[in-house]
Design goal:
Helix content: 40-55%
Strand order of the largest sheet: 1-2-3-4-7
Number of strands: 7
Structural class: alpha+beta
Distance between the termini: 31 Å
Largest sheet: 5 strands, antiparallel
Number of helices: 6
Radius of gyration: 16 Å
Shape: globular
């Protein structure tokens, strides 16, 4: 058994039983799509990252509220149909997330910041930080939408390579 697979299995045991099958299925899907798996132990639990060509596509992170998916949806957010199909709670989370300081002022934020993303929702233009603009709690309602967002991001990035 490889170190990554062993670490993934340890991580999976920390996921609530109701979400383990989804997390495992998404893991297999992302690996099949060419993503690399990077697992680190953190103070609050594991941090699991999926990367494509050494660029993060998503992370699983543990918080007090539960397991969270941080999606680096630079490309997925350009798909208006995906954004408008998200449940209201996910749309609200995106809208309420912090604005990208660097998109508003190019001299703001860190010089290594890759900038956030811009999307149109309900006729309003949003410029959000890529670190929390798509940061969703894993719930039964959100799971399929997390899958769609991440899969869309991976497929678009692969066409750009």
């Amino acid at each position: 058994m490889t170190k990554e697979l062993n670490s993934f299995n340890e991580f999976l045991l920390t996921v609530t039983p109701e979400h383990q099958a989804f997390v495992e299925k998404l893991n297999q899907k992302l690996i099949k799509q060419g993503c690399d798996l990077v697992i680190k132990k953190a103070k609050s639990g594991y941090t699991v990252t999926y990367q494509l060509k050494k660029k993060s596509v998503m992370n699983w992170i543990f918080r007090k509220a539960g397991m969270m998916a941080r999606i680096y949806g630079d490309n997925a957010c350009k798909d208006k149909d995906i954004i408008t199909s998200l449940p209201t709670n996910m749309q609200k989370k995106m809208i309420m997330s912090r604005d990208c300081a660097r998109l508003i002022d190019p001299n703001a934020c860190s010089p290594v910041c890759v900038r956030g993303f811009v999307y149109n929702l309900n006729g309003d233009i949003h410029k959000k930080c890529r670190n929390d603009g798509m940061f969703f709690q894993l719930t039964n309602e959100n799971a399929e939408h997390i899958d769609k967002l991440v899969s869309k991001e991976v497929s678009v990035r692969k066409t750009l390579l």
